[in-house]
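Running this now, will post back.
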Amino acid sequence: MSIMTSSTRRAGDHFEPTDTDPQVQRRMRGYLEQIDYTAFASNKAVLSVTVPRVEGEQFQRLAVAASTARARWVTEAVAMTDHGATLTEAQVARLHHLRSTYEELTSVYEAMRRMVERGYVAYRPIPA
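Update: finished.
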């Protein structure tokens, strides 16, 4: 199984026991749960100090910044190709920079969302 996130493809890596002994499988699952909990506790300890909470307004600003970066990237690409399909090296470099900006902002948004989803940091929603 693979999951497409932004421009990165992640392969599913779920535990599939090779040993058919149920005791060995349970023990291995227990080890894996300990490992997962260690990662959770470590993330929560570090992130709750460095980023004690995130707010709805922060998500909104990141979403607008990512949307604006995507629009700028696409708009400039369309404008560049209005005068022909061949782009100069400088134009390609510019598009690369614009795409990278969009992808970085999108990645930050997704990372911050995961931090909230996994309970590493507190979330304060936008007041109604």
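The mean pLDDT is 89. More later if anyone needs it.
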